[in-house]
Specification:
The chain is mainly α. The chain has a single domain, classed as Orthogonal Bundle (ABC transporter involved in vitamin B12 uptake, BtuC), CATH 1.10.3470. α4 packs antiparallel against α6, α6 runs antiparallel to α7 and α6 packs antiparallel against α12. The relative contact order is 0.18. The protein is globular, with a radius of gyration of 21 Å. A two-stranded antiparallel sheet has the order 1-2.
């Protein structure tokens, strides 16, 4: 593991200044997102409506309230969830290259989604009608939670949670889920293959207030309460033994961090599909700006994660308009070079 050093307060901007910058950035990107799209509702028209100078037509009001506002809210929520989950995992593993996928959420959620897409037609008609269009998100969330419970049980022995065992078990479970996904992909028809491909690359195209409501009860408490783990995660940066001497409940911190990560990342993956690199890149960029103190890192990660995902969605909607790129392609294109830079920058410390 690579210990994350405590911040050098004198060489970095003050946290409140970073907060103001991130809030302004989030507001600006949100306004651009609401005013950008294939349908005509430019930012200038939107500003006039918001300021009371002009009123929206019924068609424009429908576009704003039923399409773009849910999409913006879902982007902010999913981005915040992935970034906070990434920061929690990196704090737990004491490694800036850790990712929410380490706890098996991505593998389990992916397998659940594939099962729903390929085998969903075998459900009894009454059950299919009851679940409706929420079958894939529900199956993805259930798969992520089952994977997390299996890993937590595998890593727990004698009342203690082994982080190394958790990592190895996550790799094994990911390989097993990948094999099962491959078998189901082989059995899928052409339309199911298209659905599988689109879901695996992530999208906010299915955003709706109903879908947001299914994930909000899991994501919002994690994002709001994650800073309560800040002191414990700061102590873990010094090592488990030192943290215990400081009076930190190490085992409870591990379990709460794993559960919080599973809840946030699992719910985000369930409603938006597979979106990579947000959980790795956002916390690392913030460490460069304000240091690794989790008291500021966690709330700032929520702000920057949501902002970056909304910006990526805006690019995905406009780059090939009127078609739409999967948002995972955009985040991978932007995040992969940064991730490579992190590897090169850290290889001396990590021994790679």
């Amino acid at each position: 593991m690579v210990a994350l050093p405590l911040p050098d307060e004198g060489s970095r901007p003050k946290p409140r200044h970073i907060t103001l910058v991130l809030l302004a950035l989030a507001a600006g990107v949100s306004l651009l997102s609401l005013g950008t799209g294939a349908a005509g509702l430019p930012p200038a028209r939107l500003l006039a409506a918001l300021s009371g100078i002009d009123a929206l037509t019924p068609a424009e009001s429908l576009i704003l309230h039923d399409i773009r506002l849910p999409r913006l809210a879902m982007g902010l929520m999913v981005g915040a969830a992935l970034a906070v989950a990434g920061a929690l995992m990196q704090g737990l593993f004491r490694n800036p290259l850790a990712d929410p996928g380490i706890v098996g959420v991505g593998a389990g959620a992916g397998l659940g989604a594939v099962l729903a897409i390929v085998l969903g037609g075998l459900l009894p008609p009454a059950l299919a009608a009851l679940i409706g269009g929420q079958l894939v998100p529900f199956a993805a969330f259930l798969g992520g939670w089952i994977a997390t419970l299996i890993l937590a049980r595998a890593a727990m022995s004698g009342g203690r949670t082994s982080v190394a065992t958790l990592l190895l078990a996550g790799i094994a479970l990911g390989a097993l889920a990948g094999a099962a996904t491959g078998i189901l992909t082989f059995l899928a028809d052409d339309q199911q293959l298209r659905d599988l491909t689109f879901w695996s690359m992530g999208s906010l195209a299915g955003a709706s207030w109903a879908r947001i409501a299914t994930a909000l009860p899991l994501i919002l408490p994690v994002v709001l309460l994650a800073p309560l783990l800040a002191r414990a995660l700061n102590g873990l940066a010094l090592g488990e033994a030192q943290a215990a001497h400081m009076g930190i409940a190490v085992e409870r911190t591990k379990r709460l961090t794993i559960l919080a990560t599973a809840a946030a990342a699992g719910a985000a993956t369930a409603i938006a599909g597979g979106i990579g690199f947000i959980g790795i890149v956002v916390p690392h960029l913030l460490r460069l700006a304000c240091g690794p103190d989790h008291r500021t890192l966690l709330p700032h990660a929520a702000l920057l994660g949501g902002t970056l995902l909304v910006a990526a969605d805006m690019i995905a909607r406009t780059l090939t308009a009127p078609a739409e790129l999967p948002i995972g392609i955009v985040t991978a294109t932007l995040g992969a070079p940064i991730f490579l830079w992190i590897l090169l920058r850290r290889r001396g410390l990590a021994g790679i």
